[in-house]
Amino acid sequence: MLPIILLYAAAGITLIWGVAHISAMGPVVRGFAPLSDDNRRIITMEWIAEGLTLCFIGLLVLLLTLTSGPENPTAFLVYGVCAGMLVLLAFLSQLTGARTSIVPIRICPFVKAAAAILILLGIFL
After folding, report:
1. Could you give the angle at the alpha carbon of 88 between the alpha carbons of 12 and 21, nearest 5°?
2. With contact defined as beta carbons under 8 Å apart, do 69 and 75 qualify?
3. pLDDT, tens digit, 9 for 90 and up, residues 40-98
4. 28 pLDDT exceeds 90?
5. Which residue in 11, 16, 34, 108 has the fewest CB atoms around it within 10 Å?
6. Would you put residue 36 in left (φ > 0), alpha (ψ -120 to 50) or beta?
7. What is the 3-state secondary structure (H, E, C) of the chain?
8. What's the rounded Cα separation, in Å, for the pair 28 and 80?
9. CA-CA distance, 94 to 28, in Å (whole number)?
10. What is the pTM of this model?
11. Per-residue pLDDT for 31 more than 90?
């Protein structure tokens, strides 16, 4: 039962962080003003893309847990890939966004890494 709870927690954290990422996009992009129209569009696109990626990972973990659980060999593989992607996103955030003065962006690597750890604990416990 604990592995399932850990997987649901990881899915919830990742989904919530993705939705928050998309919801905060407007104020974040405006904070970079003045920007050319092209630069504003690129930052907007990248901000939304990361939020959608997080939502996709969260939904994938959630739906997989609802339908298969960690005992399924294919699910085990997909959980591992999702955890790996979260680690890569955390590393990217640590190298870039975490060096800013914006607190939510500074904690982003830790949120992503925590979700990855929860997934790994969920499949290995």
Report:
1. 45
2. yes
3. 999 899 999 999 999 999 999 999 999 998 889 999 999 999 999 999 999 999 998 87
4. no
5. 34
6. beta
7. CHHHHHHHHHHHHHHHHHHHHHHCHHHHHHCCCCCCHHHHHHHHHHHHHHHHHHHHHHHHHHHHHHHCCCCCHHHHHHHHHHHHHHHHHHHHHHHCHHHCCCHHHHHHHHHHHHHHHHHHHHHHC
8. 31
9. 18
10. 0.92
11. no
| Cα separation, 20 vs 51, whole angstroms | 8
Q: What are 12's two structure tokens?
A: 């919830």
CA pair distance 119, 100, nearest whole angstrom: 28
Please, what is the average pLDDT of the chain? 93
Q: Could you give the CA distance from residue 94 to residue 97 in angstroms, rounded to a whole number? A: 6
The amino acid sitting at 48 is I
- The Cβ of residue 77 has, within 10 Å, a number of other Cβ atoms equal to 11
Q: What is the largest CA-CA distance in the chain?
A: 52
What tokens does 32 get? 């970079």
- 71 by Cβ neighbours in 10 Å (0-12 / 13-18 / 19+) ranks as exposed
